[in-house]
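I'll show a sample.
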Amino acid sequence: MIEIAKVNSLFIQNCGSCVLSSYAIVSNYFTNLPIEQFFEDYCRHFGLSFNTWQEAELAYAQHFDQEWRRRACRGYEVILDLHQNSTQHVFEQSRKIFLGHFYLDSTVVVSELENQLRNEESFLNITYEPGVNYHSITIFYDGINFRYRDTNNRSIGTIGLLTQIGRLRDSILYASKR
């Protein structure tokens, strides 16, 4: 179960940065590290230049799409690789506190994911199709409802079941090691 008051509801992404933004929302909950620092450390990991965190977010967005295509994998797999292997501070601190498990097709494990969210201190970053594009949001359970945090805006919404989000795709379940 997640304490809703500890979930950052203020950060808004400035460009197509939803995958790393969603990861940063999760990590911020567990580590209190500033969300902006995740874009900077992503850029440091890949040797991308930036002067401000906003420039780092833009550099990330431009680089990330190329990176998952180059690796022939899903974007969440790139983020999971950073979580497990990067020597940058935010990723090192995050992996000390929580684990990630990638699911290629969330539709076949919806019940399992919902149960894990209900029973563990965990978050689910999930890709869905809100229209013609893909988008990543963060799902958690607050002890009463499933909630979602969309970094396109400053709010935390409520959903009944994961299937109500839309057409589900890949996901990562992040669970506390505590």
Summary: The radius of gyration is 15 Å. Residues 53-71 form the longest helix (19 residues). Residues 4-176 form a domain with the Cathepsin B; Chain A fold (CATH 3.90.70). The first strand starts at residue 98 and ends at 103.
